[in-house]
User: Fold this.
Amino acid sequence: MEITQAQFEQIKHCLPTQRGNVSLSNLTVLNAVLYVAEHGCKWRGLPKRFGNWHTIYTRMNRWSKAGVLDRVFEQLQRAQVVRIKIEAVSLDSTSIEVHPDGTGALKGTAHKPSASPEAVGTPRFIWLPRMLERP
Assistant:
C-alpha cells in the first residue's frame, strides 16, 4: 500500500511545506506510515528503504497532533486512493511490575505480637459453602 507521485500530487496541499535541510520527503514519510498501518509492525521494523525510523516517527507524531494525518486520510479516501479507517491503534504495549509502595498499598507498620501464636499464622481452614438439599 504505497501511493505514487501522481496520487501524492492530489493530496500535497494537505501536508506542511518542507523547509530547510530535510532528508526525507513527505511522500516517503507518508508511505512509511501507510506501511506501518498495513503491516502492523513496530517503527523500528520499518525497511531501510524508508529511511531512519525515528525521523519518520517524529514527523508522524507532529502531523498527528496537528491534525495533518486526519486531513490526509480524508483526502486519500475522497480521491479513492486508499480505503482504510483507523479508529484505534496500539503500536506498543509494555507490562511493568510495580513495587507495592507504588500502588498505594499501606506501608508496613510495626507488628504487634498476638496473645496466641495460632492467631498469627495462616488460617487452618477454608470456608466452603455446600448445599444441604438438592432442589
Remarks:
- Helices lie at 5-11, 26-39, 53-66, 68-78.
- The mean pLDDT is 75.
